[in-house]
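Sync notes, pocket subgroup
Present: LS, DG
LS reminded everyone that the earlier model was apo-only. Rerun requested with F0G included. Inputs:
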Amino acid sequence: MTQPRAADGGAMTFRTIIEPFRIHSVEPLRITTVGERGRAIRDAGFNLFNLRSEDVLIDLLTDSGTGAMSRDQWAGVQRGDESYAGSPSWFRFLESVQDLFPFRHVIPTHQGRAAEKILFTAIGGAGKIIPNNTHFDTTRANVEFTGAEAVDLVIAEGLDPASTHPFKGNMDVGRLDQLLEARGADVPVVFVTITNNSGGGQPVSLANLTAVSEICHRHRIPLFLDACRFAENAWFIREREPGQHDRDVRDIVRDMAALADGMTMSAKKDGLANIGGWLALDDDALAESCRNLLILTEGFPTYGGLAGRDLEAIAQGLREVVDHDYLRYRIRSTAYLGDALITAGVPVVRPIGGHAVYLDARALLPHIPPLEYPGQSLAVALYETGGIRSCEIGTVMFGLRPDGTEHAAPLDLVRLAIPRRTYTQSHVDYVIEVCTDVAGRASSLRGYRIVEQPRALRHFTARFAPAET
Ligand code: F0G
């Protein structure tokens, strides 16, 4: 993969950006046939979450917990101290988190949604409103489970797949200010998701975060970051925001943290770990009620939902994820996939996000109406054709409202999420070939209908059948 010579400021002499690691232990992939995959996906009710992962060749379902850990993280696993209380692994974890996010209280959880559940249990409830640039599915579900309303206030460009705005994750500060003016008393917290996963993995600028922080604090409402992909967001700020180019990413991360009053985190993303998360905040009273909830469901405050060895893996992961060589490779290798698909004429969300490439299924399959799930159709076709598992982010994921009615989501996307440090460039070249092949036969793809679904988070377990039309 290449980029213009010396675009990094001159540190690299050659154009090709290589994976800044070599492979230390290998996992075999099982090669399957189109026939085998056709049977597997039928048995799975055409839901990719229901597949056995051994039947998947290239697994781009998620970048969450699926990355490769480093030698030094595995060494940390060996060093993990499993003392119930006050383990040295806890203190290494705490130091690593607070080095980047110096909040007074850090509450370890088994993953991001556990942090969300605890926070929204403490501050949510009927009549409350939680604004965000765009809530991710678990965040929205955790807000709504308490009876509160989840409101998305991303800028208009964030909903336009063709817009090349450099910070499409930005919050619409005008609408936020209006909401807080009208309903501030009902808003216990404002969230900003960095990067904005549901909106295409798009970053939020420091300038926007600063404006959001100013508005929140003028209304005396705390600002929290959903910081799952904070390092990728900080790298985009370094690359795209005026005045940030020569800065250390760690300092950009600290600036983002300084604008906020707390955070939720899934260490399965930019923690470079396979499990883990935390809730961090400054407010002493809120921290105490959150710790009380933590003890009910997760564990004692110095391990939360994690083993000592997990705390060690995260502590080391946080040191590695802010390495500039890693981030340059990470962002460039995702763009390599996206740029190749653009060249092949496949519609994708632009600019290319940090952790994933989002195919615009509604644009590719205009003959499939949103309520016949063009994203699901495309995701199934990528699996049958090439064994690639992707994830629908559209009407299947977001179309069912809490009142039971169904509506088209703003976008019908298919996410190709790239696990960190896991696949090589030839795997990605194969993905490009498969996507190009499926896009070339787009008009032959058919829609789906849902034959079975739960009341919430239906995309995980719903079963589908080909639409009758
Ligand atoms: N917030 C965002 C922005 C996320 O992307 C996720 C998870 C979470 C919160 C919840 O974290 O999984 O550790 O409980 N996203 C994964 C994904 C599942 O595939 O994008 P978690």
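DG: Residues 62, 64, 111-113, 136, 138-139, 193, 197, 226, 228, 266, 268, 277 surround F0G (CB under 6 Å).
LS: The mean pLDDT is 95.
Action: DG to write up.
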